[in-house]
Amino acid sequence: MTAIEQFLEQKNIRPTAMRILVYQFLDTKEIAVGLTAIEHAFDKAERTTLYRTLKTFEEKGVVHQIDDGTGTTKYALCEAGCNCDVEQDLHLHFHCTKCNETTCLTDHKIQPMNLPDNFTAEDVNLVVKGICDKCND
Question: Could you tell me if 78 and 61 are in contact, meaning their C-beta atoms sit under 8 angstroms apart?
């Protein structure tokens, strides 16, 4: 059994061939990717299969989704030890307005927010927009 198969099983995800391939694809990316990019990488796979794979990964804390304001939901692998908890595991995302790539800045954590009584955060998404280091050269 491979390390990816073991990891998926630890997350209570049955390690099908497509799930392993999607995980490997995401693992090679330094940027967040949308469903369309994943579809292009797996042009023989059905869109619904890929979408369900991403949703399963999201529900089980393997990936998180990012709304970077482009109108396309992006996905990125969670870092080791992440449980996608709104109170503890938040980090910045950077969207480059020049190359249109979105990057997780996992080393830049967002401090927990103090919401008023009777307010419950379900999702937090902080995206900084500007020019990335590659485009600034």
Answer: yes
